[in-house]
Amino acid sequence: MQPKIIAIGEPMLEFNATEEGSLSEVDLFRVGYGGDTSNFAIAASRLGGSVGYLTAVGNDPFGDRFIKLWETEKIDTSQIKRDPESPTGIYFISRKDNQHYFTYYRNTSAASSMKASELPLDYISQSSILHVSGISQAISLKACDAVFAAISAAKNAGVRVSYDPNLRIKLWPIERARAIIHQTVTSANLFLPSYEDATVLTGLESPEAIASFYLDMGPDIVVLKLGAEGALLATRPDNGTGIFMQRYKSFSVNTVDMTGAGDTFDGAFVVSWLSGQPLDNCVRFANAAGAIVTTGLGAVTPIPRKAEVEAMMANA
Length: 316
Known about the structure:
The chain is α/β, with parallel strands linked by helices. It has a domain of 105 residues: UDP-N-acetylmuramoyl-L-alanine:D-glutamate ligase (3-Layer(aba) Sandwich), CATH 3.40.1190. It is built from eleven helices and 14 strands. An eight-stranded mixed beta sheet has the order 4-1-9-10-11-12-13-14, with helices on both faces. A four-stranded mixed beta sheet has the order 3-2-7-8. Helix 1 packs across helix 9 and helix 10 packs across helix 11. The longest helix is centred in the middle third of the chain and has 16 residues.
């Protein structure tokens, strides 16, 4: 079946230290799953969306684990490439003195080798929403070109584009990041930045000023994620005059780990938006889903199902 939601990007197998210390000191690690668009796809699927994923993984055991994960999560894997020459990306998380340290092995990964010429463009053009990420654009020039090709196919077919910049300064110079991200915003229907990313990209501090800045670039909807402060929705009324802005409070939870909260917010908003819900319902649904993720450890395990999100909304 043709999925309605397509995500394109980079998955990475996670090795999370189970004891404190540097990588040279730690002996035991817990295996997990990472990658912002993979997290998005899992969240969207668990919350009721019809989802397909476009990526490349190595023809290796780590790639096998991801394929099994996505199939278990009812994500269409029919268009995922198995690369016999490039490995699946991995990263390690270590902790010392109350700080987290990330060590990545992704420079020659299968996902970073994705090519625009190998994309299944019909698969994209027959969907309803394409979700892309700034990380997918930052990992390599080839992957960046592939993301732009996917966006072009979507736009030519009238498919909506959802975009989270997910700025990672260590992956690319800020000047290039800003140029690529802002160019992509002009093609997005839905833009989903975090406040932290947006302040670096724009130099602005006011959430309302940031939302207005990005709305002027062309998206129909800007949702600025404000963490514990909730989210700010910005859009233009149907009559095209003025800007509508509204802040939405977060849900109160006992936060344990913020990993994957923004990706889950994105997935929840897109699923709700695609189902035709009013925008205020979309933001509240996304706020609740993102809050639930922070109550557990890791990016994938705590991602909620639809009933759990609706229960939180009903009891708020």
